[in-house]
Every structure is written in structure tokens, then in C-alpha cells.
Design goal:
Order of helices and strands: EEEEHEEHEHEEHHHHHEHHH
Mean pLDDT: 94
Largest sheet: 6 strands, mixed
Low-confidence stretches: none
Strand order of the largest sheet: 5-6-4-7-3-8
Radius of gyration: 19 Å
Distance between the termini: 29 Å
Number of strands: 10
Number of domains: 2
Helix content: 25-40%
Structural class: alpha/beta
């Protein structure tokens, strides 16, 4: 938005980490990314973490991602599909798999006969998914309001991390109705990450001690840089020339304003290591 559409957004914090996966038809026989050759997979948006991770996994598996009608030998055809339409399209055989944020993966597993192929957080360790953004004018003109909004988000994330099932039922259609999915679907999306998925191969890095979804507000610059670098290797539809020469270090400084979340982390001790500068840097890990 900031560099292609010239819309002056600022990232203020991360909203959650992981929380996505790629599912395939339960009877498709697809057990790894190599088996996606000759298949069709839906993504929610070209400029998304989902497209980046999926294409990384395909390339690492020797499969070429393409954007066209049919996939040739050794290719996987990608298409855009709104997340609410993905489970039904998979059940109807219109696509062979989809990659998206929860709770649409859990919905596919429970209602559409889908099987989890891999969790994205098991490919890119604790990756960002949704982020908190604001108009640059609002951030500059009303810093007190901005700070209070980020404080509320940080506190809410801490509560979600400690009370997953309660929050899942609260936001489901059986609770306050923030999501149109029943409680069992949302609970699965927020809590189900264990031995059964290790046995099926959906989790291959149990030593990462990841979660199906987690809540972590600090916007690691290393992740922003990785996304900018990876987008240069990611196939997208339309004019992507704005990516040429886009410097990852510049984007990490220019797009992200971490002043408010840094202050919030110091105020709320729920976040282990929040006051430790060393905890605010990390090395990004991608491994298929």
C-alpha cells in the first residue's frame, strides 16, 4: 500500500504470529509439496505472507509456481480466492488446496474434508501474519490516542495468549459473534497443535515449540526485511516493478513505527523479556 498505491500507512505492531496453514483434500493423496505439481492451489492475496511461504515451499520442493489457467509438468497453478470461498471450493474439487489464515483451515478440516498439509509457522518460525496499521497522519497528529490504542492491543494479545479457549468461544458465533464460525471450529483454530499433526507430517519442527496461532506484538525488523527480499522472488499478477530496487533496510525503517509498541511492552510485564533489548532482535528461520 505504501510503495505501490502511495497510501501513507504505518505498521505499529504485529497482531498475531503463525495462525495459517495449507490444507489439501483429505482423499487427494497429497502428502508433501512435491505432490502439488500439476495441481491448483488458492491464495488469499498476491502480496501476502501466504503467497511468500507457499512459493518458498514449492521452490524448495522443485515445483514451479505459475499464474495461468492450467499447471504444466512440474508446475503448481496459483489463483486468488476469497478465504470464505476456499473450503467450499476444495470440497467441490475446484481447487486441490488452499493456504490461508485461521479459522478457515480448521473450518476446512471439520466441514470440508480437508487435511492439514503443513502449518506455515512450521516453515517460517513464528512469522508475522496480521499487523496493526494506521494512517501516517493519525500517528503524527494524535500520538496520545495512537499510544493508547496500541496499549489496548498489547494487553488484549497477552490475554488471548493466556486464555485461548475462552477467547475462541467468545469471538465465535456461539459467543459474541465476531466470527461467523461455531465455537468448535474457532477453538480448534486457536488450540489444536499436537502429536496427531506431528504424526501426519503437518508439524516437522516440534523443537520450535510453536503454536497453531500465537500473539506477539513486537514487529521484528528482520521479518520485514525478509518479506521485502522474498517478494522479489515471488510470482504475482500485475505490475510489480515498484519492488525493483526497494531496499529492505529502508522499508524496515520507513514502513514501521515501533515507538508505541516499544513503550507498551515496557509498561506491561506480561511479555517476558519485553524490557531486554536483546529480546527485540532475532534471526529469521525458514526450513521446509
Amino acid at each position: 500500500m505504501r510503495y505501490n498505491n502511495r497510501f501513507p500507512v504505518k505498521i505499529l505492531a504485529w497482531a498475531h504470529t503463525n495462525g495459517s496453514g495449507i490444507v489439501v483434500g483429505g482423499k487427494s493423496g497429497i502428502t508433501d509439496f512435491r505432490a502439488l505439481a500439476g495441481r491448483r492451489v488458492a491464495v488469499p492475496y498476491w502480496y501476502s505472507m501466504h503467497n511468500v511461504v507457499l512459493q518458498f515451499a514449492l521452490r524448495e520442493s522443485g515445483v514451479t509456481p505459475v499464474i495461468r489457467g492450467e499447471a504444466g509438468p512440474g508446475e503448481c497453478a496459483l489463483q486468488i480466492l476469497p478465504p470464505p470461498e476456499m473450503p467450499a471450493a476444495l470440497a467441490a474439487g475446484k481447487i486441490d488446496g488452499y493456504i490461508v489464515a485461521e479459522p478457515f483451515n480448521a473450518l476446512g478440516e471439520i466441514k470440508a474434508g480437508a487435511r492439514m498439509l503443513r502449518f506455515t509457522g512450521d516453515i517460517w518460525k513464528n512469522h508475522p501474519c496480521c499487523v496493526v496499521v494506521a494512517h501516517e497522519r493519525q500517528v503524527a497528529g494524535n500520538p496520545e490516542w495512537t499510544g493508547k490504542a496500541v496499549d489496548a492491543i498489547v494487553r488484549a494479545q497477552a490475554y488471548c495468549a493466556k486464555n485461548r479457549e475462552e477467547v475462541a468461544r467468545l469471538i465465535s458465533k456461539d459467543g459474541r459473534g465476531y466470527l461467523p464460525m461455531p465455537g468448535d471450529v474457532v477453538v480448534k483454530a486457536m488450540t489444536d497443535y499436537g502429536a496427531a499433526y506431528e504424526a501426519s507430517g503437518a508439524i516437522r519442527h516440534p523443537e520450535w515449540s510453536a503454536s497453531r496461532i500465537d500473539f506477539q506484538p513486537w514487529p521484528y525488523p528482520s521479518a520485514t526485511k525478509l518479506i521485502v527480499e522474498a517478494m522479489g522472488r515471488t510470482v504475482v499478477e500485475g505490475d510489480a516493478t515498484f519492488l525493483n530496487g526497494l531496499d529492505p533496510d529502508f522499508v524496515a525503517r520507513d514502513l514501521v513505527d515501533d515507538r508505541f509498541v516499544a513503550a507498551a511492552l515496557k509498561r506491561y510485564p506480561e511479555w517476558a523479556g519485553a524490557g531486554d533489548a536483546a529480546a527485540l532482535t532475532r534471526q529469521e528461520i525458514l526450513s521446509l
